[in-house]
Design a protein that fits this description.
This protein is mostly helical. 62% of the residues lie in helices and 11% in strands. A two-stranded antiparallel ribbon has the order 1-2.
Length: 120
């Protein structure tokens, strides 16, 4: 799965938050400054071609677009790719990096340990 551009991610966030939406609905929900309609249509077309969204035709030239993949699943895939790319697939190295950068607290580490132990 390819990493989304910031603009593509903005469109996906609108769809993840709003569900099935028309092109106009997507455009209206994008943050300011809103891009041109044709620009959004290009992003939507690219997202559909990459399998990120699907559409339903409700009438002549009227479509509803919706995510084909959840926000959670996309985040999981991107995290896995990052761990593979930057940490040779080692989640331990990834978490160690977060700890060294003080991005993860002791309490959060304890919570992670509890989560792992519950899965056993």
């Amino acid at each position: 799965m390819k990493k989304l551009t910031d603009k593509e991610l903005a469109v996906m966030n609108v769809l993840w938050d709003g569900g099935a939406l028309s092109m106009r609905d997507i455009l209206e929900r994008l943050p300011e400054p809103q891009p041109h309609f044709n620009t959004v249509a290009t992003f939507v077309r690219r997202l559909e071609q990459s399998g990120m969204i699907t559409h339903k035709e409700l009438g002549t030239r009227f479509f509803l677009y919706e995510p084909a993949i959840s926000r959670q699943k996309y985040a999981e895939l991107m995290n896995k790719e990052s761990v593979n790319r930057f940490f040779n697939g080692s989640y331990m190295d990834f978490i160690s990096c977060l700890v060294k950068q003080q991005e993860v607290s002791v309490d959060e580490l304890k919570e992670l340990i509890n989560m792992v132990e519950k899965k056993k």
